[in-house]
């Protein structure tokens, strides 16, 4: 496992030295006086600044660079985690990208039909090194989407892990972590694409027919 100081460099995917990523990080953290406050602000800037849309998955490596993601208005969990990780590094916070497989017990019928399963492989999250420990943070679902689904939005204060909620507000099963794939200094793109194609085939990208209304603006 890499030391915290090894998780600050700019990489091909986590290209925080790109002006657009650096500027995003600077704007989000302006006035913050500690790494904890900077990390918290970055979490919310990514969580709510980018609408979650699972139909935006891509097989193109260039679409997973932080400098490309920062220009979007909507994307899914892995790119949002990539952007948070890169922006944290830009703010001087050691960060790495983590992945797990999760089961979404509240996935929409259209999404289940499209993917053929309720298991979402290579769900992305960030690990941020704050106050001497690594914390997991998943800025996946924006606040508006959570309100539509009736689930509590994920909160992060820089003192504890912030992973997806196992239950919704009515006590129904929501997100279940079924397999941990580990944390990485850079995006393991080839392995991620191999698993995505093995699991879903071509069942990623925009849905056929009418759009899924719950994920529309």
Account of the protein in words:
With 217 residues, this protein is α+β, with helices and mostly antiparallel strands. It has a single domain, classed as Roll (C8orf32 fold). Helices cover 32% and strands 19% of the residues. It is built from 7 helices and 6 strands, in the order ααβαβαβαββαβα. A 4-stranded antiparallel β-sheet has the order 5-4-3-6. The radius of gyration is 16 Å and the shape is globular. It starts with 18 loop residues before the first helix and ends in a 17-residue tail after the last helix. The mean pLDDT is 92.
End-to-end separation in angstroms reads 40 Å
Compute the gyration radius: what is it?
16 Å
SS content category: alpha+beta
| Arrangement of strands in the largest sheet | 5-4-3-6
Helix content bin: 25-40%
How many distinct helices? 7
What low-confidence regions span 5 or more consecutive residues with pLDDT below 50?
none
Shape: globular
Can you count the beta strands? 6
The H-and-E topology, N to C, reads as HHEHEHEHEEHEH
Could you report the average pLDDT, rounded to the nearest whole number? 92
Beta strand %: 15-25%
Q: What fold name goes in the CATH topology slot?
A: C8orf32 fold
CATH class: Alpha Beta
| CATH architecture group name | Roll
**How does the major sheet shape up?**
4 strands, antiparallel
């Amino acid at each position: 496992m890499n030391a915290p100081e090894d998780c600050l460099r700019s990489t091909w995917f986590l290209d925080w030295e790109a002006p657009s990523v650096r500027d995003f990080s600077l704007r989000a953290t302006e006035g913050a006086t500690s790494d904890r406050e900077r990390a918290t602000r970055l979490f919310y800037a990514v969580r709510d600044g980018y609408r979650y849309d699972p139909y935006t998955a891509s097989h193109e490596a260039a679409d997973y660079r932080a400098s490309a993601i920062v220009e979007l208005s909507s994307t899914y969990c892995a790119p949002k985690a990539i952007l948070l990780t890169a922006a944290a590094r830009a703010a001087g916070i050691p960060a790495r990208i983590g992945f797990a497989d999760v089961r979404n017990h509240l996935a929409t019928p259209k999404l289940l039909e499209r993917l053929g399963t309720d298991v979402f492989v290579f769900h992305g999250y960030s690990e941020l090194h704050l106050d001497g420990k690594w914390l997991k943070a998943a800025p996946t679902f924006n606040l508006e989407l959570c309100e539509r689904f009736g689930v509590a939005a994920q909160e992060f204060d820089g003192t504890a892990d912030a992973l997806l909620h196992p239950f919704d507000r009515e006590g129904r099963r929501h997100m279940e972590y079924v397999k941990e794939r580990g944390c990485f200094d850079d995006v393991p793109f080839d392995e991620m694409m191999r698993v995505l194609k093995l699991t879903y085939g071509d069942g990623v990208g925009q849905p056929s027919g009418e759009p899924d209304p719950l994920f529309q603006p």
